[in-house]
Amino acid sequence: MLGKEQYVHGHTYHGAPAGWPFINAFNFPVWGMLEKIAVNLLAGMPAIVKPATVTSYLTEKVVRRIIESNILPEGALQLICGSAGDLLDHVTSQDVVTFTGSASTGLMLKSNPVILRESVPFTMEADSLNCIVLGEDVEPGMPEWDLFIKEIRKEMTLKAGQRCTGIRRIFVPENKLEDIRKGLSAALDQTVIGNPLNEKVRMGSLAGLQQREEVKSQVKKLLASSQIIYGSLDSVQAVDADAVKGAFMSPLLLLNTSPFSSPEVHEVEAFGPVSTLMPYRNADEVIALSKMGKGSLVSTIVTANPAIARKYVIGAAAWHGRILVLNQECAKENTGHGSPLPMLVHGGPGRAGGGEEMGGIRGVKHYLQRTAIQGSPTMLTEITSVYQPFGKGKDPGKHPFRKYFEELQIGDQLITEKRVITADDIDRFADLSGDHFYAHIKTTDFSGTMFEQQVAHGYLIMSIAAGLFVDSYEKNPVLLNYGIDELRFTKPVYPGSEIHIRFTCKEKLPNDKRVVENPADAKRGDDIEKGIVKWLVEMIDESGEITGVATILTMVALKEQA
Q1: Which of 57, 163, 428, 468 matches a 20 to 30 Å C-alpha distance to 289?
Q2: Do the Cβ atoms of 393 and 413 come closer than 8 Å?
Q3: Measured at the alpha carbon of residue 445, what is the angle toward residues 439 and 450, in degrees to the nearest 5?
Q4: Residue 308 and residue 206: Cα distance in Å, rounded?
Q5: What is the mean pLDDT, run by run of 10 residues, along the chain of 562 residues?
Q6: CA dihedral in degrees (160, 165, 166, 167; nearest 10)?
Q7: What is the 3-state secondary structure (H, E, C) of 255-298?
């Protein structure tokens, strides 16, 4: 039994294929598991799942369905219900341990002698004393005032407050403390507690009776310096349910009027529908108070004033993995204080575990190893399947644009004909584009400028480059130009310069075919099998120096199958 969190994923067990131990909190029996096994499976690593006892029944049912579906290779997903025994004693430096849960359990796991000795990668996302701040500019009647109340109520009652991102500390300007208290009390009064199957119910029970007792025990510690101003520690009304047997609990709003002299409010977490309201006098004070949590997953500041937001973010950022700046402008698109997006660096320093969000592409990287490879450009091209500048090019045998996606090889290279750039070219391009920047006008006095004489537009050179490398006289497998990346102009091109292009197949990427349920919704080209090809374009002058470089992307058809 590993307490309220559980999962373990490793990489190698007694010569077995690479895998990972994954330890996840009891409040994530399904979502937490699926989020994390998704990214480790994408990284090519099997997973051992160890759920918390209190929610293991649900986890077991989900894992059973996954296994029965045959969507994964045999052994890719394994489950342990009950004690993990000496599992962590067998991990090696090629394993990865990922943990979500309480800071205390995380410390116990992270301190395992084998994990320390073997330098096993350990990613930790721990519960923390997250805070929300009401900006000094926000007054009753402003949209931000209502957003502040709504956000707190949601975070206190969603999943009965048993979320690692739940709002535990509420900081409000001292002259607005009473108004916020009244607003929060009125909002919490609207929360119907009971059986979630009842349409009127807005908050269910805690994960179990043991969890309810643990929350009450933590609240009693907080009451050493705080008082309950909303809710009851001992009684609650539940709709369509037994309030006692069902582990139901009233939302509890506490008040602490001396947050600087009350360490427990910044150290003790009641993992349930519990938050503490506290006053502050100015921006410096609230920044200091936010830091007293010693690291959190997320902090929110509600303000309509950019200066207030800037000061708070710069002052508090080092102690929070994510900061939400909430106001009327972003309210509709806002995902909320407790809902990170996979691409964000959710996770946090200190008490929050020092880890990162374990979902999305960012999560995949936790299960990948990075190794620096040294060698010649040609050798690195062959190893990485990405053309490295100055590597040896390959004779494509025919114009690369006449090759289908499968036929193209990384390094296929075309050296184009040469073209002299004239003053007339520059003048005509200026008239056509409307770009009459002084450097492109031949009558300009160039003394004191960066240029010796009239200079060609960079986009003129890029356009001429396309004219040199494009095979344009008949249909070919290239379907369209998809875009230009990393375009740089590195040397001025003056009239009389002679330009040619080195055009190289840099990288090939699959193109996911769009799934269209209704054929009528299909767009032209959806039925064409294709891939994305990146080409390195080097613009070279008569001296052999590169005047510009870019990566262009094309969609290239796959060869028709017989």
Answers
A1: 163
A2: yes
A3: 50
A4: 37
A5: 32 40 68 80 86 86 93 89 84 84 82 92 83 98 97 95 93 97 97 95 93 95 97 94 93 98 96 97 98 94 96 95 94 85 73 73 78 92 94 95 95 97 97 96 94 96 95 85 94 97 96 58 67 97 97 92 45
A6: -170
A7: ECCCHHHCHHHHCCCCCCCEEEEEEECCHHHHHHHHHCCCCEEE
330 in active site: no
Phi, psi of 193 (to 5 degrees): -105, 140
364 three-state secondary structure: helix
| CA 478 and chain centroid, separation | 34
| Beta pairing class for 122-126 and 413-415 | unpaired
CB-CB contact of 279 with 336 (8 Å): no
Q: What angle do CA 275, 280, 282 make, to 5 degrees?
A: 145
Q: Write the CA distances from 364 to 352, 353, 356, 360, 385, integer angstroms.
A: 20, 19, 11, 7, 21
CA dist., res. 360 & res. 441, Å (int): 50
Query: 312 phi and psi, to 5 degrees?
Result: -65, -45
Task: Identify the H or E element spanning 555.
Answer: strand 546-557
Q: Cβ(289)–Cβ(256) under 8 Å?
A: no
* Extended strands (E) in 463-529: 478-489, 498-510
Q: For residue 481, which amino acid is it?
A: N
Of the residues 5, 35, 151, 164, only one is catalytic, namely 164
| 151 vs 144: CA distance, rounded Å | 10
Do the beta carbons of residue 537 and residue 500 sit within 8 Å?
no
Active-site residue identified among 125, 151, 269, 538: 125
Residue type, 123: T
Single-letter amino acid code for the residue at 532: I
Predicted local distance difference test score (pLDDT) of residue 13: 31
As a dihedral over the C-alpha atoms of residue 513, residue 515, residue 521, residue 523, rounded to 10 degrees, the angle is 0
- Prediction pTM value: 0.80
What distances in angstroms separate CA 533 from CA 81, 158, 276, 407, 548, one per listed residue? 47, 46, 56, 12, 20
Instruction: Please state, in angstroms and rounded to a whole number, the distance separating the CA atoms of residues 288 and 24.
Output: 31
Record the tokens describing residue 512, joined without a space: 């996911």
Token pair 């919704």: residue: 521
Domains and CATH numbers, the chain: 20-127 (3.40.605.10), 130-347 (3.40.309.10), 377-557 (3.10.129.10)
Q: 348 φ, ψ to 5°?
A: -165, 170
User: Coil, strand, or helix at residue 36?
Assistant: helix
Give the span between the Cα atoms of 316 and 298, in whole angstroms.
Answer: 11
Residue 483 CA, chain-centre distance (Å), reads 25
* Gap between the Cα atoms of 489 and 223, Å rounded: 65
Q: Which residue spans within 367-433 are E strands per DSSP?
A: 413-415, 419-420
Give the C-alpha separation, 400 to 470, whole Å: 9
Q: Residue 21: its pLDDT value, please?
A: 63
The CA distance from 380 to 373, in Å, is 8
